[in-house]
């Protein structure tokens, strides 16, 4: 049995970074998601600007409702990030070992990142993603718990947005491919021949690279992101749609048609600025935390690996 300590270290530090960024930026995420979920002509909109969502929470004394669904989102974010970073590191090492190369090219990196994104196990984590979106887009003060949110609908409804979620695995693929390629350029020439802890960027460099790479990925995939929010959103008391229209909006084609009919082509990019602000800050914070704790996590993994090796001769640390 082999224990891939480097991949385990990458996964642990990445998951912790994701947990921190999700928690810190969750109120912004809630405002952004509720703003994106509303699909109405401009003169009929409840939220003209994203700040209107925040003002509603303050004026109704429901500020704590900006955190509705945080627990579910944290579980989903932590588990998905752990699986993603482990898969990404593992597939990357496997590719380098098979090819004998010392670095990985852009195209190969994109393929590896996409494979890791699919490995996130959307089929397993999709109900958590759907539930957290519905809890965020519920009326302030009316959000329900995870189990009640899922049990109110059918089992198939828990997987709303699965197809577009798989499509959106290209988002982190683009992001981490860009990030890793830029990181390799910065660290080029600093590597030594001896095996030591993985090289780490400074906090500022990691933050800036994370921001640039996530901004590019978000702009390229935003129409799909908007559709996903619509598909998974909770039903609003202000929604004048018929039951047939609501069911149609739960499909990709139905969401696309609804946005086009009610808001026009610019509707596909409604909330883009808020999405960029949130995702860029989240990604940059995640990668900054990940880089800062990477060495500590690596040392911890080495200690654990040494302990397990001493107690189990059949266990070999890589």
TrEMBL record:
- Give one Pfam hit by family name: Mito_carr
Q: Which UniProt keywords apply?
A: Antiport, Membrane, Peroxisome, Repeat, Transmembrane, Transmembrane helix, Transport
Q: Which domain of life is it from?
A: Eukaryota
Membrane: is it a keyword of this entry? yes
As for membrane topology, the entry says:
Multi-pass membrane protein
- GO cellular component, as recorded: peroxisomal membrane
Primary location class: membrane
A GO biological process this protein is involved in? fatty acid beta-oxidation
Q: Where are the Solcar repeats?
A: 5-94, 201-296
One GO MF term attached to the UniProt entry: ADP transmembrane transporter activity
Per the UniProt record, which residue ranges are transmembrane? 74-91, 103-128
Subcellular localization is given as: Peroxisome membrane
**Do you know which InterPro entries this protein is assigned to?**
MCP_dom_sf, MCP_transmembrane, Peroxisomal_Ade_carrier
Q: Does the keyword Transcription regulation apply?
A: no
Q: Which family does it belong to?
A: Belongs to the mitochondrial carrier (TC 2.A.29) family.
Q: What is this protein called?
A: Peroxisomal membrane protein PMP34
Traced from the root, the source organism's taxonomic lineage reads:
Eukaryota, Viridiplantae, Streptophyta, Embryophyta, Tracheophyta
């Amino acid at each position: 049995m082999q224990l891939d300590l480097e991949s385990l270290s990458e996964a642990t530090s990445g998951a912790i970074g994701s947990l921190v960024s999700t928690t810190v930026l969750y109120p912004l995420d809630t405002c952004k998601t509720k703003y994106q979920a509303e699909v109405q002509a401009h003169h009929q909109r409840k939220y003209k600007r994203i700040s209107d969502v925040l003002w509603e929470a303050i004026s109704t004394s429901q500020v704590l409702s900006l955190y509705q669904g945080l627990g579910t989102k944290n579980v989903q974010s932590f588990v998905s990030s752990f699986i993603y970073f482990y898969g990404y590191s593992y597939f990357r090492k496997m590719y380098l070992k098979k090819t004998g190369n010392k670095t990985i090219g852009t195209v190969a990196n994109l393929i590896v990142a996409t494979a890791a994104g699919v490995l996130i196990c959307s089929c397993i984590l999709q109900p958590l993603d759907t539930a957290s979106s519905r809890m965020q887009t519920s009326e302030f003060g009316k959000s329900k718990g995870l189990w009640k949110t899922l049990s109110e609908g059918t089992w198939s409804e828990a997987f709303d947005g699965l197809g577009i979620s798989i499509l959106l695995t290209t988002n982190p693929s683009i992001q981490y491919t860009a990030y890793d390629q830029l990181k390799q350029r910065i660290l080029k020439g600093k590597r030594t021949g001896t095996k030591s802890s993985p090289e780490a960027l400074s906090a500022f460099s990691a933050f800036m690279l994370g921001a640039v790479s996530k901004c590019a990925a978000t702009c390229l995939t935003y129409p799909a992101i908007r559709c996903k929010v619509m598909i998974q959103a909770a039903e609003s008391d202000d929604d004048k749609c018929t039951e047939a229209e609501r069911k149609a909006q739960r499909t990709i084609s139905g969401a696309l048609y609804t946005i086009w009919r009610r808001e026009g082509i610019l509707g596909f990019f409604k909330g883009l600025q808020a999405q960029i602000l949130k995702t860029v800050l989240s990604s940059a914070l995640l990668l900054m935390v990940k880089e800062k704790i990477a060495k500590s996590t690596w040392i911890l993994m080495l200690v654990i690996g040494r302990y397990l090796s001493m107690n189990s001769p059949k266990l070999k640390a890589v």
